[in-house]
Each structure stands twice: as C-alpha cells, then as structure tokens.
Amino acid sequence: MAKAQASKEAKQAAKQARKKASKERRQQLWQAFQMQRKEDKRLIPYMVGIFVLIVAVFVLLGVFIGSIWLFIPIGVVLGVLAAFILFGRRVQKNVYAKAEGQPGAAGWALTNMRGQWRVQQAVSGNAHLDAVHRVIGKPGIILVGEGSPARVKTLLSQEKKKAARVVGDTPIYEIIVGDADGQVPLSKLERHLNKLPSNVDRKRMETLEGRLSALGGRQPGPGMPKGPMPAGAKMRSMQRTARRKS
C-alpha cells in the first residue's frame, strides 16, 4: 500500500514537473517572439505569408481532388509548422549576427550544436582573447580557432601537436572562424562540421575524450568568455583580466 502511494506521488510530481517545464518553454518562446518581432519588422508578414500560401495550396488541391475539408486541416497544420520553422531560423540568424566577431562566440556556437559532439572550450588561448576549442565527434578531432588568424594558427598548431600524441591515426581537422578566404563564418560553423566525413564511432569517441582529457587544457576564466562578449564590454578590461590569469 505504501509503495503504491509512493508511486502515485512520484507520478504526480513528474506530471507537475512536465507541466512546469512546458509552461516555461511557452513563456520562453513567447519572449523570444516578442524580442524578435521588435527587431525584425518582416517577421510577422513573412510568417503570415508562408502560412497563407501553404493553406491556399492545400485548398486548391482539395478543390481539384474533391476533398477540400480533408485538405484544409492539413494545410493549416503544415502552415503553422512552416511559420514556426521560419521564426526559428530568423531568430537564429539574428543571434548569430549579434555574436559575430565577439570573443567567445565560436565556443558558444559549438556548445549549442545539436548532435553527439563533445566540446571543450578554450583548451588553448592567450591574453588577446584568441582561443582554440576542441570538439570530438564522428569526424574525429576538430580544433576550432577564433581571434586573430595569425595568432590562432600558432595556437592551432600547438594544440594539434599535443592531440596527435594521444589520438593515433584519428583525423584532426583545423578550422578558423571568420569571414576571410579559407575561414568558416560563425553562422555556418555547425553546418560545416556536419559535412565532415564520419571516421569514428561512439565507442572510439569516448576513448578519445578520455585520452584528451588527460592532456588538460586552459580552463576559461573571467578573461576567456564562455559565450559572446556582451555588446559594450570593454576589451581592454577583458584583456587585462586574461593576462592576470595567463
């Protein structure tokens, strides 16, 4: 009897937790929509436009086929879905545009990637807030640098030599985030990594993670931001902090 009561209470608590999480997600979504709407004047017209277009297409299909009342609900559902996808992409584009060029932006983008990526931010860095982030994934080892290309290349080379000593023949990729030739724009970083060939399985990834963890690495402190540096933050102050930590 006691076990049944405890089980019932646990289920009730889990149900309440799900409700709370769902409410928080709706609130966050609404806040994101309000913020994006204020900054993106084309958002609502585009969302309404794509919704109306998809519904209209399905209405026409229903008219031609003779099952209009069947196609209208399908069109409405797909129209809402398309509008939400459009909203999400425009929010993402806006976020990346704000983060572009800010110290810590690449590390932030890497930690927010979807999929089985193991990310360690700022395994190497300097007082200028240049940094190298290490990613373990199916392609192998990916070293992602951000900052001054000349200085970052040196950091990448040093980190690659360290990693090569413990990962054997696992491929090691080097990427510099930026808009110049040979660099990868921040907004395309995740897409670029997803296009890399698959070379290792999950078990091998875990082995690599253990070996690379033994190497240690620079832990990002106050001078090495874990995300994009806020607009208006003083670069000189950040650099002084980084020098004290280095």
From TrEMBL:
Bilayer-crossing regions: 43-62, 68-88
Highest taxon of source: Bacteria
Region (Disordered): 1-21, 211-246
InterPro entries with a match to the protein in the record: DUF4191
Coiled coil: none
Protein's UniProt keywords contain Ribonucleoprotein: no
Keywords: Membrane, Transmembrane, Transmembrane helix
Keyword Membrane: yes
Basic and acidic residues biased stretches: 1-12
Protein name (record): DUF4191 domain-containing protein
Species in which this protein is naturally found: Gordonia desulfuricans
Lineage of the organism: Bacteria, Bacillati, Actinomycetota, Actinomycetes, Mycobacteriales
